[in-house]
Amino acid sequence: MAGLLGSVFLLVLQAYAAPPEFIQMWPSTPTSGPGSLGNETVSPSLVPPPGTSKRTPHSIIIGVRKGGTRALLEMLDIHPGVAAAATEVHFFDWDENYAKGLEWYRRLMPYSYPYQITIEKTPGYFTSPLAPARIHAMNSSIRLLLILRDPTERVISDYTQVYFNRLENHKPVQAIEDVLVRNGGLNTRYKAIQRSLYDVHVKNWLLHFPLDQIHIVDGDTLIRDPLPELQRVERFLELPPRIVASNFYFNQTKGFYCIRSDGRERCLHESKGRPHPPVNSSVLQQLHSYFRQHNRNFYRLVGRTFDWH
Ligand SMILES: *[C@@H]1O[C@H](CO)[C@@H](O)[C@H](O)[C@H]1NC(C)=O
Ligand SMILES: *[C@@H]1O[C@H](CO)[C@@H](O)[C@H](O)[C@H]1NC(C)=O
Ligand SMILES: *[C@@H]1O[C@H](CO)[C@@H](O)[C@H](O)[C@H]1NC(C)=O
Ligand SMILES: *[C@@H]1O[C@H](CO)[C@@H](O)[C@H](O)[C@H]1NC(C)=O
């Protein structure tokens, strides 16, 4: 919750980018900072900026897990016309009272000005069988953002995240070959491999949404050269072009781009861009050949090719 409130607060700090009438209505030096905010109703500094409201999102980053969803959302948040949600909600995976849930979902969205669009990200949606129909029921004209990487890289990244989470929680870990290989062959039932079958998952979305409502961001390109990918997203969301080259600087230590916006500099969390474990080359080859046909199917379904193995 503190994270959510913190981001509401940060949103307020972004008000400089808003039309002048909003700036005057909002104090430039709030009395408390992110982290110290614990309760939406008690702190006067948390009174929503006049003229803002909470709405269901206009766009959702639906996945894929480990595709670069956090980087994409943080980079889009540079845009003054974007209000980014701070929490992942997994709302459309649930089987609860829909109307009640929708109200709760809306409350988790950031306060936004009428000229802003709200964006949330929940990487699990892409592989959820329930999400497409439910999101469609909420807003059939919503614009979906899907960020993908080479499916083999994604599997290794998925494994790496689980590996570090388990280490932190003092749980036993397995070597990558032990989860990827079963009885001498590729363990295609491994969840991380299943999640990389982009053709299987996108088919499910295309049953509910036309292709022109789904914009695919090339996650490998976004990391190497963020601006052109973000400009494509601006056009897809019909936002005026506001993200510029000076919003990014390369951090040599991290080996990644960091963000410069609103006079602040920020890099992605340390857990992003962890080095991957070395993987046995014959297992890598097996992954590449397993995904090859699935990738081709995917290219055909979305009418676009990617630079994947
Ligand atoms: C938040 O504020 C309300 C109203 O003042 C109060 O009833 C509630 O206990 C507070 N919650 C927390 C977590 O401080
Ligand atoms: C549905 O999404 C579209 C596209 O982002 C947006 O223009 C529209 O306002 C949304 N409708 C609602 C009710 O939020
Ligand atoms: C660059 O990355 C390093 C390592 O993550 C970090 O400690 C440092 O603060 C970053 N520098 C800048 C200018 O972002
Ligand atoms: C890779 O794994 C195979 C069995 O899965 C094994 O025969 C081979 O020696 C391994 N290669 C290396 C370089 O470790």
TrEMBL record:
It comes from the Eukaryota. One of its GO terms (molecular function) is [heparan sulfate]-glucosamine 3-sulfotransferase activity. Keywords: Disulfide bond, Glycoprotein, Golgi apparatus, Signal, Transferase. Its EC number is 2.8.2.-. It is found in: Golgi apparatus lumen. It catalyses: alpha-D-glucosaminyl-[heparan sulfate](n) + 3'-phosphoadenylyl sulfate = 3-sulfo-alpha-D-glucosaminyl-[heparan sulfate](n) + adenosine 3',5'-bisphosphate + H(+). Residues 57-294 form the Sulfotransferase domain. Residues 29-44 have a biased composition (Polar residues). The active site is at residue 66. Residues 29-56 are annotated as: Disordered. One of its GO terms (biological process) is glycosaminoglycan biosynthetic process. GO terms for cellular component: Golgi lumen. Residues 1-17 form the signal peptide. Disulfide bonds join 258-267. 3'-phosphoadenylyl sulfate binds at residues 66-70, 149, 157, 257, 272-276. Belongs to the sulfotransferase 1 family. Sulfotransferase that utilizes 3'-phospho-5'-adenylyl sulfate (PAPS) to catalyze the transfer of a sulfo group to position 3 of glucosamine residues in heparan. Catalyzes the rate limiting step in the biosynthesis of heparan sulfate (HSact). This modification is a crucial step in the biosynthesis of anticoagulant heparan sulfate as it completes the structure of the antithrombin pentasaccharide binding site. This is Sulfotransferase. It comes from Electrophorus electricus. The lineage of its organism: Eukaryota, Metazoa, Chordata, Craniata, Vertebrata.
